[in-house]
Fold this sequence. Notes:
Layout lengths: L6 H8 L12 E6 L3 H4 L10 H17 L3 E6 L12 H4 L26 E5 L10 H7 L4 E7 L1 H14 L3 E10 L3 H14 L2 E3 L1 H9 L20
Parallel strand pairs: 1-2, 1-4, 2-3, 4-5, 5-6
Amino acid sequence: MTGTPTDDERLFAERGFGQRIGFGSRPALVVIDYIRAFTDRTMPLGSNLDAQLAVTVTVLEAARNAQIPIYYTIVAYDEEGMGDAGVWLQKQRGIVTLRAGTPAVELDPRLGRRPDEAVIVKKYASSFFGTDLVSRLNSHQVDTLLITGATTSGCVRATAVDAVQYGYRPMVLEDAVGDRSASAHRQALFDLDQKYADVIASDTAITYLAGLTPPTNRQTPPSPRKAVLK
């Protein structure tokens, strides 16, 4: 956080919050819910995320250059009556726009997703809840999660909290995440940085990625065993 410390910042610092987790050696990038329903400001769940999307595109290029795993998440419901949204459907009307197979749940084309980059479908806030993300990360021996996406106070926050609970190092890229509410965005970033994640600038993440040696970022397949003749 920049500028003059607030009372909250001073209190948290005095009590030992906000320590740095730091990067590990095997990162992955998670791009959370940059789908049309969220990036089109005219839709019920949408807001202006143009700047955050542009930053994410830059981070994606750095991630591809470093050859680290990249995962996109989308939210989509395919049951009749949206039964797979559960009680959450009663809380916000905009969920009805997240019907599987509609343009609303497609990734924003500005991301330029490539065919070999995985898309994970989720039903709730966290990218971990009800998905196979942990298995995917573990198969690549990932220890650090770079997090971009929307919304800061919702799915980004839930994913970061779950990430640290699963033993990963969550790095929330503050200029690559966004929210419908500026105040909710700021508060979520503050709280995450104090308790659950390192909130960092995208430039910091890009510099980190540029310093990695690509072969160490992906799982090396075992060498085939040679037959032993007797």
